[in-house]
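Quarterly update from the structural biology core.
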Amino acid sequence: MADDDRQRDERPRPRYGELAPEGWQWRPPADADRLDTSRPAPSDPTETPDAPAGLPTQHQPGRHFSADETDPDAAPPQLRRSAPRWNLGWTIGLLILGFLGMSYSIGTLNALPSAIQLLHTNQGLGDYTPAPSVAGILTAGSITMGVIWIASATITTLLLVRRRLSFYVPLIAGVIAFVAVIVFFSFVLSTDPALIDFYSGVTPATPTP
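Predicted structure, tokenized:
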């Protein structure tokens, strides 16, 4: 080990600048003190550089989110407001009323030939013989009344399950059913020429003895 220590280079190590060429002097670069303007400085001192793609961003106090960004710590958006409590009671009541109206309309349509016969008797127009198309008109009217109420009940039930306003559906169905009844009544009355002539003033009424 002593021989190895002697073979080591015991020459003094050169100090800084001693091995430089003669006359050479070190000068700092001209732009050493210039700020790096390649990246814009953040306007908000609390703003941090963007996180790499795929990494979740943490919420930072004072950070403002743009329209395209969402705050992960923010509360979830509020869902659509549920219907008020009175909506259920009114809806059920209107559905029951609509069912009763549907039943009454179907019964009135089926009793229309008897009502026309009574009118013939009171006005002295003779016996009433229904036209062949009257039976089909009355059947179509009864089916239409049932379909209107079933559609109203189905839509209303779906709205109630979703806790949405639904009371207006039976009201709209009632208006549609009322118009449909008038239309079918008009179709049946239009098949009776004697009644049309009487109300048109063509055939005078003769009192029944």
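The chain is about 50% helix and 0% strand.
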